[in-house]
Structures
1.
Amino acid sequence: AGGGHTGPGDKYEPAGVVHRREFVHTAEEMDQPGRLSFHTDLWRGMTVDEAYYRHKLRGYDRGGPVGDR
């Protein structure tokens, strides 16, 4: 198997087998904005540092959101 996202469904609905040396994220973790694309980048060969930099919230000085808080 190539791995990847199991698709939508109930969090308690079985979606496959986990083999040794694999890990699973909870449904709540995967619901966090950007989580799936972050892990897709890792799966495609980016380093953790590269994926983190690509997905971290940018500050105002680098084009990030502007608000009153």
2.
Amino acid sequence: EVYVDMIKAGIVDPAKVVRTALQDAGSIAALLITAEAMITDVPAKDAAPAGGGGGGMGGY
């Protein structure tokens, strides 16, 4: 096992880390804004009551 300084080894680029974090934050913010605009409650209209039963149905 070898321990190295990740920045000196070129594994971690601080500018890339910051850029990626900002891109991810912007992506999540856009998702929340879009989701908020898409979620809505449509008021249900009250339907007319059902009609009465027909006459002459066996004398019950």
3.
Amino acid sequence: MGELKSYVNNLFKKYANNKQIEDLKAEILSNLEAKKADLISSGMTEEKAIEAAKRNITTIDNLIDGNKQIFINQFSTAGLQDALLYTVIAWITTIPMFLFREFFVANWILFIAILILGYNYYTRASNKNERFIAERRYVNIKNYYRLRRLVWAIWGVFVAVYILFITGVYFASNIWFSRPVAIDGPYSLAVILLRYYVPFISIIIPLAVNRLPKLILKCEVGERYE
């Protein structure tokens, strides 16, 4: 393998091979080979021509379709803020569950999550170090769009399975034997309704993930930062 080809492969080592990557590799390698040939024809030695050609392209992150250069710590802080907000809202909606000993655990889990998210958000948001704030990284927004669709799909399946399970537990025998449903008073009705409500608390996860592509665009490095 030629030195320039090895160099190009190393530039792409963190990217999975696909048609776009292979085409881009071939184009860059062709450009570097042409650059090397020009330098050699102008009197430079092959070794120096190769090194000069390498310096011509030191990164390809900006050439990958969907790649965005963002302020990574601002992005993660904003993501934590959204997750914290959604968790607080979910926690508030579960406060009435304290009246039902079967469900107060959900409220405590969310409260602990708020403490953890709140601490992490505070430590990042209060960090005024310029290097921390200005740290940049390339992320691929297409991956986050795919992640968003995947998380929503998993959540939808989870909720559907949970609801079918609860329905089976409470009403399967009534449906099977065509018996009327009997609920022993308001408390029992509230318990059943809460069991149906519990899986929907987890919607905070896909909602938080849903925001990530927008946060990428919001935290993208623009010309005003250059």
4.
Amino acid sequence: MKSAAASLAVTISSFGINQGVGSESLSEFFRAVRLDRQVGSSSKYVQ
């Protein structure tokens, strides 16, 4: 669980904040790699 949360944090930081990727795109990515099953990853949460 800690590694999933760490992956989520790094992804949001790297792509969402630094690269300006939207929350909807990040949410789709988390669903594709199945991180959404372990941590909250809806677009509203990612914002």
